[in-house]
Amino acid sequence: MATRQTLTLAKPDDWHLHLRDGEVMAAVLPQTTRCFARAMVMPNLHPPIATVEQAVAYRGRILAALPPGVRFTPLMALYLSDAFDAAQVAQASRSGCVHGVKLYPKGIATAGQPGVSAIERCYPALAAMEEHDLPLLVHGEVTSTLVDIFDRERTFLDETLAPLVARFPRLRIVLEHISTTEAVRFVEQAPPNVAATVTVHHMLMNRNSLFEGGIRPHHYCIPVLKRESHRAEVLRAATSGNPKFFLGTDSAPHLRHTKENACGCAGAFTAHAAIELYAEAFEMAGALDRLEGFASHHGADFYRLPRNTETITLERGQWPVAERIAVGEAGEIVPLRAGGTVAWRLCAAGAQPA
Known about the structure:
Elements: E1 6-10, E2 13-17, H1 22-33, E3 38-41, H2 52-64, E4 73-79, H3 86-95, E5 98-103, H4 123-132, E6 136-138, H5 152-167, E7 173-175, H6 181-189, E8 194-198, H7 200-204, H8 228-238, E9 245-247, H9 256-259, H10 274-284, H11 291-302, E10 311-320, E11 325-327, E12 331-333, E13 341-346
Parallel strand pairs: 2-3, 3-4, 4-5, 5-6, 6-7, 7-8, 8-9
Antiparallel strand pairs: 1-10, 10-13, 11-12
């Protein structure tokens, strides 16, 4: 059978993206808009995006930073806290720009942010979200130092998410950036209102990637990379065609000096080559024909938004990844696979493959 040389698919969406703000946002936004039509923008800024007014203002800053002539729709998420209430849910539901509320357990997110101290304190807000059909986006890990870091996702499923699904059976829930066999099984066996996003780094790398020739800080992410058996199962689920699994890069821009220090930030920057790396992963699984569903259809269907009608085309052909992405006066970002190559490339807008 001839090796496939091109792949055309409906323009994809990124259902889990970090853009930051200011200079960093201006530097990384073009990396996303070159291939994605929409993105669910994470709210963990300083201070976090916790109100509709803050979300509207942040959305305005994103739109103002778009490259000239680029069409892109930022979908906003609010930051869940113990103080979040039913009135805020109702306002978010009416806003037209807020499409989800993000749960970060206390202590899991960026330093200095509150998170949720006990999920029970959010029950009134979650009941309102169920009533207004506003999805809950979940960082599914416990933060207790008594739980091994490689077991924190599994423990969260047992202790928090399973009871939550049972208590709010109509609440749409997205388990973000799944990284374990247990998370795959949980989503597969859950009702249709439970889905998951999958990052390309959790599909392509296992925990050995943290120690290739020494400690690799730019491979450090949360959830942390797991053993090979978990990576293989996450890859299987994402490429299976099951509509419960869809694309969410969790692309996280951190400046080099915040990653390469004694207490480095967690997150992998992948926006520069996201759809191309997903193509690599799907080809590895022999499932290139299923990439469009995963990247362009399943997420839109789950969020009850129209599928994109524009298309993009990828062509086979290795290209070098830059060693750095400059961020104005602030510094630089080291992208995933910096200095290496990627096997697929995005054709220029409107261009036909060579």
